[in-house]
Write a structure and sequence with these properties.
seven-stranded mixed sheet, 4 helices, SH3 type barrels, 114 residues, alpha+beta
């Protein structure tokens, strides 16, 4: 498939229910052994460690998941704007590792047991 078509799908034509595939993050070794999975979709409330970028090594809870832009916001990963306000930095889910699950409900249990 042509790369321009892949980019078009990624940024223009993909629907929100298709974008959840892009929101996967790898699991920590402890969770990987427990659930026999390498990656799971990131959710609000999960505790993650940022692995790449300016905030690498930082751990915090996921505050927001932006499906449209395919980014997550982690508490504590902030920048200060010129007017003094602090803003959460959007981070791509492939750059984080899930350390703890926030809330394991029935839907997530089924996903992990698959």
């Amino acid at each position: 498939m042509q790369s321009r078509k892949q980019r078009k799908w990624l940024f223009k034509t993909s629907k929100l229910h298709e974008r959840h595939k892009l929101l996967n993050a790898m699991l920590s070794e402890k969770l990987r052994e427990k659930y026999k999975k390498n990656a799971v979709r990131v959710r609000k409330g999960d505790k993650v460690r940022i692995m790449r970028g300016d905030f690498s090594g930082h751990e915090g809870k996921v505050v927001e998941v932006d499906m449209r832009r395919c980014r997550i916001k982690v508490e504590g990963a902030t920048i200060t704007k010129s007017d003094g306000t602090e803003v959460l930095v959007p981070i791509h889910p492939s750059n984080v590792m899930i350390i703890e699950f926030g809330e394991v409900d029935d839907v997530r249990k089924k996903i992990l047991e698959r």
